[in-house]
Design a protein that fits this description.
This protein is α/β, with parallel strands linked by helices. It has one domain (3-131): Hypothetical Protein Ychn, Chain: A (3-Layer(aba) Sandwich). It contains five helices and five strands. The protein has a five-stranded parallel β-sheet with strand order 4-3-2-1-5, sandwiched between helices. Helix 1 packs parallel to helix 3. The protein starts with a strand and ends with a strand.
Amino acid sequence: MPALTFVLMDPPFESERTATGVRLVEAALLQGFDVNVFAYEGAVSLAFARQAKHANAVHGHDADAEDHPLPREWVARLLALAAERGVKLDWVQCGLCVDERGVGEAVPGTRRGSPVDLLNASRASVSTLVIPAR
């Protein structure tokens, strides 16, 4: 199966574009595609390993009851899904963007890269989808 490349740009919790991008990556993996993800700008925070669940005082929930989904868990699940399906998910974090945001600790299975990685992934893919920020 050929590879697909996705470029994500929005930070977690800020836009429905992030959830849509994650769902598209999941769908491609389920269809048996190898997938490249280039997390750029705010999207590098999706894989930030130190995200923490929080309470919601308005609803009277503690952190466990609120059970707020964390994007780092989404990324980890996608990596696990790729392994289960026997396909490749190469999740690349833009190193410049990581440094600017101070989110250098990422979930295992992701890697630090540069726009050159995006260029190479796009060249090796049948299609590249950019999900831009506003």
